[in-house]
Amino acid sequence: MLLKEAESEKTAKRKLEHIEIVLTKPVEGPATTWFEYVFLPHRALPVVDPERVSVNVSFLGKEISVPLMIAGITGGAPGTEAINKSLAEAACRFKIALGLGSQRAALESRDLAYTYRVVRDVCTEIPIVGNLGISELIRYGPTVVYSLTSIVEVDAIAIHLNYFQEIVQPEGLAGLSRGLEVLSEAVEISPVPIIVKEVGFGISKEFATELYSSGVRYIDVAGCGGTNWALVELYRAISSNNVVKQYIADGIKDVGIPTAVSIVEVRSVSKDITIIGSGGIRSPYDAVKAIRLGANLVGLARPILVAYSKNQLNEFLEGFIVGMKSILASLGARNLDDVRQSPVVVVGLLRDWITSRGLQLT
Ligand SMILES: Cc1cc2nc3c(=O)[nH]c(=O)nc-3n(C[C@H](O)[C@H](O)[C@H](O)COP(=O)(O)O)c2cc1C
Predict the structure, then answer these.
(1) 262-289 b/e with 16+ CB inside 10 Å = b?
(2) How far is the CA of 298 from the centre of ligand 1 (A)?
(3) CA distance 301 to 282
(4) Which atom of ligand 1 is nearest to the CA of 102?
(5) How far apart are CA 281 and CA 34, in angstroms?
(6) Ligand 1: distance of its center to the CA of 172 in Å?
(7) How would residue 1 be classed by pLDDT, with cut points 50, 70 and 90?
(8) Each residue of 262-308: pLDDT tens digit?
């Protein structure tokens, strides 16, 4: 028990350090998302009124009014309930989906469950996605999905794959080779869908094919070009004076599949996968490009935390949604199906990648 409490204190401390670093250090790059190689030629005089663009979509059995999700950020340390409460209030106001940060801390200490549960107290209508790392799924076994759903009522559970982050903080590397097997058991028994989620290094078509064969139908690509978890861990290694970890983190900071690429790769596997396009979505134009390339909805993490820290969450989301609708209108799209048919130009490295991998834009 004491050991578990010490673990939970370490987990809580790490959660707070992540927030602090993400808000104060340059944690993006050097890789980019490759959305800069995608262009959507617009009509300078739109025939569609932006206010009439309908972007509502069904996600996890619930209707959301924009294909947007606040990606998993936090929970599990005293104080994070205030962040989660604000995120849930904003998600509820705009009727968008909300992801929780890893629920590991609440598995280690039930006393912390309130930091997650607060989101359901605030909003019952929106889809809420629980979260756990693959290492904990392996350690606790697939039945842990029942504990996760008892901590807070969720509509799905995201299992995050953070291999390159764990390379720097090697807590859960042992047993990773059993990961896919345990994942597919979890998919089979889970009372809610399992979303397989990266954290900023992307997912390839080969791996997505394996996931698909294991029964996974929801993938959050979280490609590179946004928050870089090698850099986040680099700053933690600098604070703790661990020079070896600094070299490890520095050595892997440019690994990853850019988000634009990862969306095209995963979509090539099946039409039947719900894709969350995330990792470095920084503008409404990025979001619309992600949808044009094959994402069903898009997710944002760091920009949301930054807007929260400036007390501008509602303004940020409103601006983002207006931006998305106005771009869709300029493409002549009245809804999301229309945008998937609109012209797209792919140039440079992304075009080379698509050709050399034998992929096709849908
Ligand atoms: C402070 C912070 C904490 C995060 N914690 C988690 C987590 O617990 N579980 C998870 O799956 N992803 C976590 N993420 C990763 C995000 O969900 C997202 O995949 C990643 O940051 C890339 O998106 P972005 O470029 O928009 O930030 C966290 C992100 C931030 C900014």
Answers:
(1) bbbbbbbbeeebbbbbbbbbbebbbbbb
(2) 13
(3) 10
(4) 8
(5) 11
(6) 18
(7) very low
(8) 999 999 999 999 999 999 999 999 999 999 999 999 999 999 999 99
d(CA 204, CA 223) in angstroms, rounded, equals: 10
Return the residue matching tokens 């797209």. 344
Contact call for residues 53 and 334 (beta carbons, < 8 A): yes
Statement: the pTM of the whole predicted model exceeds 0.85: yes
Nearest atom of ligand 1 to the alpha carbon of 200 = 22
- How far CA 297 is from CA of 289, 291, 293, 320, in Å, comes to 11, 7, 11, 14
Written as six digits, the tokens of 97 are 């989906």
> CATH number of the domain at 2-356, please?
3.20.20.70
Could you read off the pLDDT of 26-40 as tens digits, one per residue?
A: 999 999 999 999 999
Is 202 close to ligand 1, i.e. is its CB under 6 Å away? no
C-alpha to C-alpha distance for 289 and 352, rounded to whole angstroms? 18
User: Per-domain residue ranges for the chain?
Assistant: 2-356
